[in-house]
């Protein structure tokens, strides 16, 4: 009986501690669901698949990956800014290839959740996402 009380107390405390983090993730409006990760036959490379859901109006800032990203839009529409190219809006069924190390961002300009299946072919052991620092001191020439 005493052990059950201790476990119940631990569960309540853990729930109270973790709840703010879960709420913060839900409030941000983007959800990443890891689907699979496998080593490839190419040494030092792995494939990772992730479902990314962006709520209406939500943006995912400029970032890079240590390998290629292959995108398939599942639902809604998503706007991508890849390198210095003009923004590109894709709808369900559209695809996009982003070369390794290319800075890019995504946002949902629509009124419903936008979802993509992202497949990464990346260097194993490196962070999957690295955010690009924005330069605040842009001067006109």
Give a written overview of the molecule:
It contains one helix and ten strands; from the N terminus they run H-E-E-E-E-E-E-E-E-E-E. The protein is an alpha+beta fold and 141 residues long. The chain has one domain: Sandwich (Jelly Rolls). The strands form two sheets. It has a five-stranded antiparallel β-sheet with strand order 1-2-9-4-7. A five-stranded antiparallel β-sheet has the order 6-5-8-3-10, with no helix packed on it. A hairpin with a 5-residue loop joins strand 5 and strand 6. The protein is globular, with a radius of gyration of 19 Å.
Query: Total number of helical segments?
Result: 1
CATH class: Mainly Beta
CATH superfamily: Jelly Rolls
Average predicted local confidence, pLDDT:
84
